[in-house]
Amino acid sequence: MQAAPRICVVGSANVDLTFRTPRLPRPGETLAGHAFHLGFGGKGANQAVAAARLGAGVTLVARVGDDAFGQECQRRFRAEGLDTAFVRADAERPTGTAAIVVDDRAQNCILVVAGANAGLSPADVREAAAAVRQADLLLCQLEVPRGTTLEALRLARAAGVRTVLTPAPAAELSEEFFQLCDLCVPNETEAELLTGQEVKGLGGAEAAAIELRRRGVRSVVVTLGDRGALLVDEGGVSHVPAVPVRAVDPTGAGDAFTAALAVFWAEGLALREAARRASAAAALTVTRPGTQAAFPTRAELECWPG
To answer: Less packed terminus of the chain by CB within 10 Å, N or C?
Structure first.
């Protein structure tokens, strides 16, 4: 039996306050909602939980507040089987918080306050250097200071560990980021900001991916929502269709996709096959409300008829 891949995730941890409304509010409007859910998120924590549910051994490097929300985050991480040795409690900042509004068409908007995530430092990453070096794959995002993410990428590259970057929230990055990135997984908006090119349809996604590879990224997967994803690497261009489902909540789709892509790639699958399976994981996720609560287990994914 193949050993579970080891994945180190350096990133954010948030409390998610999700409001369900008939439609998204307009500026200045007070709108009555019809449901509320307290959940737990942050792109780092989301990808860590999603990867662990798919069978990976996951170490999370993150910060939470020294508050009730932070204590609950820690408890939930341990319940998911994450190694939390490098999840620090920040005495000066509250746990990061995200307010998410989801309408009846499954469209959403999200407001994030970084809180303790802003305190995750390069020194924190260096303290976790052994976990980075021993991993099969490093998974990063941009909800913590960029210098922290860059330090993690440097450590991984020096150790020969493959690196995966979700460039979200969208931000301009130095060339070193691209050169240290084995796999970059932007959505269309992020691909536009990173390259300065308009991304419309498969052609625009391909052009942006080619530009990212020119800057040093080895492989690129541009996620396209219900149109699937476009993979560009040394083997050429491949379109991975989305699995058609009735979406209930799209909030966790991107993190489910990237985490599954990382897990299956770390297990030794070709990137195209890993992307196909990741598409199924994302599709199953959006059929359920919430973020972390919606991520499938490995058994659920393998039994799902979609």
So the answer is: N
C-beta separation of 95 from 62 below 8 A: no
Residue 118 dihedral angles phi and psi, to the nearest 5°: -70, -15
Question: What would the two tokens of residue 181 be?
Answer: 């990135």
Predicted confidence (pLDDT) per residue in 121-148, tens digit? 999 999 999 999 999 999 999 999 999 9
CB 65 within 8 A of CB 94: yes
Question: In the prediction, which pLDDT does 305 show?
Answer: 75
Domain ranges for the chain, please list them. 6-13+42-95+117-303
CA dihedral in degrees (225, 188, 114, 144; nearest 10)?
110
- Which range has the worst mean pLDDT, 11-20, 84-93, 157-166? 11-20
65 φ, ψ (degrees, to nearest 5) = -75, 160
- Name beta bridge partners: 109: 101
**Count of other CB atoms within 10 angstroms of residue 81:** 14
CA-to-CA dists, residue 173 to 165, 176, 178, 198, 212, angstroms: 12, 8, 8, 17, 11
- Cβ atoms within 10 Å, residue 78: 12
Q: Which residues are catalytic?
A: 255
pLDDT on residue 238: 95
According to DSSP, the residues that pair with 65 across neighbouring strands are 90
- The architecture of the domain spanning 6-13+42-95+117-303 is 3-Layer(aba) Sandwich (3.40)
User: Which region, left, alpha or beta, applies to residue 279 given φ > 0 means left and ψ of -120 to 50 means alpha?
Assistant: alpha
Which of 142, 86, 144 is closest to 120 using CA atoms?
144
pTM (whole model) above 0.85: yes
Amino acid sitting at position 153: L
Cα–Cα dist 54/1, whole Å: 15
**Pair type for strands 229-233 and 236-240:** antiparallel
Provide the CA 259 distance to its chain's centre, in angstroms. Answer: 6
Nearest-angstrom CA–CA distance, 166 and 19:
25
